[in-house]
């Protein structure tokens, strides 16, 4: 027992010294990181870009691919750089109300944008409807049912155990999905098979991974590289209220002119052409 | 419950270890321990505890053979190594190892749990009174004194009726009167059961009071006879 | 079945199952002498550093029709694993695994090795030593493991979000329900649920820690030397 005690003490001292050394290194590294962030960002952007403002965009989940395309095109104009965050519109709405530092908000639901405008959190005159979303029925290429051929009937197939939709309580595509199912008269029959994604992106994930056999997802996601090889069926536009997608420039924007410029670009002919490529359509009249 | 034929303990082991100051240390002994109490004397670091651990099976020797009478407990050439819990060995450790969550009676009964309840109770009662700790049976180790705990520890090892008994300085920290009591108990017990007992101590008093035989160790080996005779004389002075 | 009740049920189930699985794993980690042990320790600790959404994502893939878990489950039960309570339990078990194993392992390692030697010498097999010496002396660690798993699962969000599918009564746990309320701008309701969850969790934890104190006190021995 005495032998053990001496060895333990020796090992203990060495351990403490090593631990202190590692902790000291970590502290130095993190302090360096904290004190010199500016240097890092500048290095990333390159010398010319050091003067360009950065626009922070909150974008709805269904804009995942369309927004990237739009951002690339806009950045070529050298007006600003874009930093986009994707998520659920409802989430962004709450965050922005509580001071989240975004410059632009592209919602999948016009109502959220309207509410922000009414609350005085948007730049006056920037509220607009930039696109109308489309709902599709989607399944993997190796799925048991062919939604392209059977449309709604596919949902009634016994082999379809789970149908993914976005959460109708707060996601626009979810509300649309429920409305479409009701107008097709099959909502009550398939209700027990429904599973709810937090946003339309997650909904797509459920179907893409095969855990849900079929899903009602955004066309803009269904045409993306990862999903375009699946089977899809466009839900007739009359079956659900149009998914009006609205945007605003936020009051808290740091570079308002650049932000407005981007919003204008999105609504321009070039912007609309891009959006059409991703399955969006447009209201007959702009709001 | 005694053993009619005394079965000697034959130990031949070699074990390489590191001592406290990283010195390589080789335990290399060959012993025959007859029935009765054999005192194992030696300075710290001589390897006495390691030897006891090898006999008990807590440490696996690098090579050698350990047997008690007809039972072979360890043989490196035949790759035989009986696990600790299957050797009927009693081992009283240097520091107290009573189970803190069990009371005295449960501690003592731990090693004989496989016996039928009546016999188990009888043995426990017998040894409780033999060691004069009957009054403590319901108490937890936290509630008894160091000296009492030592007696309980001894009782716990002896109640299992082992073939070999190992004691590693079992009376450290006890006062003289207590030691005398326990020595009496141990002697009485030894007379009743004729088994090899290996008793490690520094104390001349204990060695004289208990020892039927004497073995000295130094630096991992046994010190030969002539030197012991010389030591013995020293002890008696 | 309300979301709060569902959360409690999930937490209790996960804690119980993790205790069952955690005991042998912790035992092996505490007492094995294998040189590569540190690798397994790192694997066990992985869920601590992985974001829950990453875990949830891989769980989703694993539960899919081509994933290892999904295939086995479907073969055994004829339907999918994702979007079921069982799926949540499994995913949560991965997520809280280190919270079971680490306290247990610490407790086992803290048991005085000499007591284990004494037990073996007295004739107890390794299984009996585990039952009669290690376990009783590790009550503190066992309680900690149960509490941590329970609390961790109760508050779980990311993993449940990824594999749950938000089905009321099946996978809509309290954390998801509260989040839903916030998303729907029903802040009052969200607050109410959050408060109830907080009160329940606090009460459960207080009771358990009170029991823990009592268990530890009764084992202290004044003369025991280390």
Description:
By secondary structure, chain A is an alpha/beta fold. Helix content of chain A is 46%, strand content 18%. In chain A, strands 2-1-3-10-4 form a 5-stranded mixed beta sheet, sandwiched between helices. In chain A, helix 3 links the parallel strand 1 (54-60) and strand 2 (81-87). With 237 residues, chain B is an alpha/beta fold. Chain B has 7 helices and 11 strands. The longest helix of chain B has 17 residues, at 176-192. The N and C termini of chain B lie far apart (38 Å). In chain B, 40% of the residues are buried. With 226 residues, chain C is mainly α. In chain C, helix 1 (3-31) packs parallel to helix 5, helix 8 (139-154) packs antiparallel against helix 11 (187-217) and helix 10 runs antiparallel to helix 11. Chain C is globular and about 65 Å long. Chain B binds chain C through residues 56-58, 83-86, 88-91, 93, 95-97, 99-101, 110-111, 114, 140-142, 145-146, 149, 156-157, 160, and chain C through 112, 114-115, 117-126, 129, 132-133, 136-137, 218-225.
State the gist of this model.
The complex is a heterotrimer of chains A (287), B (237) and C (226). Chain B has 237 residues and is an alpha/beta fold.
- β-strand percent of chain C reads under 5%
Major beta-sheet overview of chain C: none
CATH class call of the domain at 3-32 and 90-217 in chain C: Mainly Alpha
**Oligomer class:** heterotrimer
Distance between the termini of chain C: 52 Å
CATH architecture of the domain at 3-32 and 90-217 in chain C: Orthogonal Bundle
**Could you name the CATH homologous superfamily of the domain at 3-32 and 90-217 in chain C?**
MetI-like
| Mean pLDDT across residues of chain B | 84
Q: Give the CA-CA distance, first to last residue of chain B.
A: 38 Å
Write down the CATH class of the largest domain in chain B: Alpha Beta
Which runs of chain B of at least 5 residues are low in confidence (pLDDT < 50)? Answer: none
Q: Remind me, CATH topology of the domain at 3-32 and 90-217 in chain C?
A: MetI-like fold
What would you report as the Rg of chain C, rounded to the nearest angstrom?
20 Å
Order of helices and strands of chain B: EEEHEEEEHHHEHEHEEH
DSSP E strands of chain C, number: 0
Main structural class of chain C: mainly alpha
Summarize the amount of helix of chain B as a percent range: 25-40%
Provide the number of structural domains of chain B. Answer: 2
Based on CA atoms alone, the radius of gyration of chain B comes out at 18 Å
